[in-house]
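Task: encode each sequence below as structure tokens.

Item 1
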Amino acid sequence: MKKFINEFKKFINRGNILDLAVAVVVGSAFSKIINSFVKDILTPLISIVLGDEGFENFKYVITEADEAQGIVENAVYYGRFIQNSIDFLLVALVIFVMIKVINKIKDEFEEIIEDIVEEVIETRDELLKK
């Protein structure tokens, strides 16, 4: 049992596991932000075009509801599928744009660092020549 616990400690303390745990937590928080942006900002703007109902209420009724006879409505809610598809595309678009911006900023920082390193090397070489 002691060997098992030591192996488990070693497994948990590896950098990859900790990085993965951090990524999951940050990804979960980021997901909430993106979902809120889509549902609370973009979807209401889209509903201006479609009217107050939006896509979610689009359905094909197979059997009408009849409360007196205890029959519940049976319907194909294709509007929910359309809405979920649009949500997915909007979330993917927002994530794509954010990654594109982050990569651009990262590339600019890398260029700045390369320039600084080159200047330091040139200065060092000049000092060594003297």
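Item 2
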Amino acid sequence: MINFNDFNFHPSIQESIDAMGFTKPTPVQIKTIPVISENKDLIACAQTGTGKTAAFLLPALQKILVNGDFNGTKLLVVVPTRELAIQIDQHMQGFSYFLPVSSIAVYGGGDGETWDQQKTAIAAGVNVIIATPGRLISLISLNYLKSETLQTLVLDEADRMLDMGFYDDIIKIIGALPKERQTLMFSATMPPKIRLLARKIMNSPEEVNISIAKPAEGVLQGAYLVHDDQKSPLIMDLLHDKPELKSILIFSATKKNVKSLNKQLKSDGLSCAAIHSDLEQPERLTVLSDFKNKKFQVLVATDIVSRGIDIDNIDLVINYDVPSDAEDYVHRVGRTARAESTGVALTFINSKEVRSFQNIEQLIGSEVHKIPLPRHIGEGPQYVISKSRYEGKPFRKGRSKDSRRQGKKRN
């Protein structure tokens, strides 16, 4: 059985690994760390919660120590969101605790003092930068980034960055970096645009694929067919008097729904909070920190936290709305059953969302079990369900069971 000692990291790195309680590497770490350690370019397809942050930070730190040069920026990690930048920087601080390596998270949305701190650190040649594309472009335009010493570039959550429209920014960033560098790309999915980007910026990359576009094995998935006015009664039925569920994460499509649902849950006596784009960055960080520390039971959120937030031991994830992007489903349910633990993910499907859920089932390669509604909530929408997916056609009122069967055969 492989353990972290088998990677032959510098003793100071191994000391940090031991201090953080890491013993057994995850599959993505086992497959990628040797490739990265050989200074090869890499495309790694791995879902959220598989340990990919350590997979690129540890060998990058090893390279810095082996070269013995701590002057200037050596590692640049580009990420889609400020939350992910902060999370990776926290990991970085842990892994580099016994090392003379400096790091900083660079992102927008802060006050003037934060911006000044970021500029000063980068101009001074901080060793590791974890940055969002927009803020990094600003620093490049102002000539603060000195990249001549760069050894490694990491694009984390690359598919998400492209979905958010950062393609041109990424190309501009890469244009400001030395051509002689190692480039690592981590992505939960591998659409054609990722491969197109890889061809432009990478040198004969190795490829590693870990559980592409599928929820973790420990996630017990289920779905309810509901009318919109049944969602609130159902969620209260699921959450009422469930003290054994210490951490519950509910995703909704809009910040309006998030605010409304949070208010309703509080009025019904649940300990909860909400996170959405209207909150300032310090407020978001406080909410996330309190949730991680179990100060309240339920977090209601938009997709702002579906990727890149390091929250372990979530017992239940509820998709109050079906995500319109099938890949976002993987990231949402990936908030539970992290690091080989187990968890439950439930999705509410109304009559307009059935096609979107079909796409999800096709993406993950399996049908999600449909759970009957409790009797007191009433009957939800009825759909013809084939062996592998919904057919997406509601039954008309008054049709007999025989006619339903015939309709199913015709489809």
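Check on item 2: The first strand starts at residue 42 and ends at 46. DSSP finds 15 helices and 16 strands in the chain.
End of task.
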